[in-house]
Design a protein that fits this description.
Order of helices and strands of chain A: HHHEHHHH
CATH superfamily of the largest domain in chain A: RNA polymerase sigma factor, region 2, helix turn helix motif
Largest interface: A-B, 33 and 24 residues
Helix content of chain B: over 70%
CATH class of the largest domain in chain A: Mainly Alpha
Oligomer: heterodimer
Radius of gyration of chain B: 28 Å
Shape of chain B: rod-shaped
Helix content of chain A: over 70%
CATH topology of the largest domain in chain A: Rna Polymerase Sigma Factor, Chain: A
Largest sheet of chain B: none
Structural class of chain A: mainly alpha
Distance between the termini of chain B: 34 Å
Distance between the termini of chain A: 52 Å
Amino acid sequence: MIHAMKTNEQKRIFEEWLPQHRGLLFKVVRAYAFNPHDQDDLFQEIVTQVWNSVPNYRGDSAVTTWIYRVALYSAMGWSKRERRHRENHQAIGADDRPLLQPSSLENPQLDWLYEQISHLDEIDRSLTLLMLDGFSYREIAATMGISQSHVGVKLNRIKKRLTEQSKKEQKHGV
Amino acid sequence: MEFEDIQVVWNSQHDKPLYGVDEVGLHKILRSKSQRFRRLIYWQQLQTYGSSLLFLMLIAAILLVNYFGLLGKIGSSRALAGWEILALLVATVGWLQFSLSVYFGQKQQKNREQSDTQSLLDDLDREIKHTTYQIRTRKNLLMGFIPPYIGTGLFLLVVFGVTGVSRWILIPVIPGLIFALVTESRSQRRLVDREMVPRLRDLETLREKLTDPHR
């Protein structure tokens, strides 16, 4: 039931959910933004969207699924806006944020996987994240607003592409 | 890799933030910026003590010369009148009050800022306290400047009197002193608004970020 939620209640829920699901948010951020500045920007965007959407949560899906949906749609919107912005503005140089340091450097395989995900289009990226995080085809279809059979076709192609790419790179010793 | 292996790679990630704050780098920057800020404050204190010392020495010199009856030898036709000695003593009190209040205020603040450890958060807290104190002391600086400016006015009044310079000269000198007083307090106000308040805001934001449990 949608009702006017008091700010205190909104804040309490937000502060409870954010730490619980921040890992999920980091995954989405990493799949859609590729330098510290953009990742920071996208994270703020998603957090703002989650905050604004808290009063709309109706409880008809798990909180994780709901947050995933908000995060993915925010990321896709952000990604489109950024692309338009970059087409119109010459990049001066990525802000490397000297006061930030990567906190997860030690996993080259994971870096490779994110790189592969970044090569997919925006919808496929979302599908991949949901699949890798163990969502069923039915849940993915509901989250993304497409049919289950379409999800199945797309995910089979993505799985094939990822495994082929990994084998190809292993063959070339990468 | 088969897809199952890719899934294992995916599941191996943790939920730590992608980027953490480089506390060592941040600490270095904080220290360097703090040093610059403290140098500015130190320079202002030096000006306060220097000008106080200069005026107090001049007043002492005039009183001594007068005491030993040597005023005539430096061009004065008469000794200091009673009210002139009193004016010089009032000027001394004005300057002493100003410089001692700055000195003891800073000393007290230094004690308050003392801490046993040198961690980033300790340094940050110290800088927040220090900047807050510097802002607070400058808020009512116009009132604080009044005693030394009155002291300077009285000193000039006596000097003009004993050297035979017409006291009419006080007509431009007094507005000049008032103008200098207002200008000085406005420049301090500008320093507060342009440097100290933004600095305090930055320090507080940084502290919030560092102590944020979700970071």
